[in-house]
Prior knowledge:
By secondary structure, this protein is an alpha+beta fold.
Amino acid sequence: MKFSYLVIFIIVLILGLGGYIFFIRPKTTNPGQNVQSMRSTQQLGKIIPLNPASIPAGEKIEFGTSHGTVAVNNFYKVARGFDGDALVVRRTPEYEIIYDTADSVFGIFITGGSSIGSVRISAESDLVGILGVPRAQVCYLNPVWSASVNLNKDLSGRSYPLSFCSAVPHP
């Protein structure tokens, strides 16, 4: 008799966990969604320095993609620290390059400059240099860019692919 109660309990537990995973847990359908929402409505915050013990060892970090493995330079070694949930890889007066650790997505957040297009191109080149791989391999990582609402209300609140990652025209 006790065995049947145990079996019923386990089945209910599995069904409950499955229901949570498939129906209740939030899902990210756009890999850059967290990057753009995290940055489009917020001002840049204070950077909390990295704990040296938390920096991954080695010169390269590998990412599994639908195109195979991409081994990039260990960007944690040049990162400034964390601003909330984002690893701030580079921060300049005109842009910020972040790594969203929750979704494993790189993002460029444009915060200033006289031309969004020229700042975006500069930031994209900076990201390629930091990662140390060809542009095509950078694209396999699905990086995105977004603009500050203070800079351009029409472009903020959305994320866009990098200029060399898509045939879609960029603003």
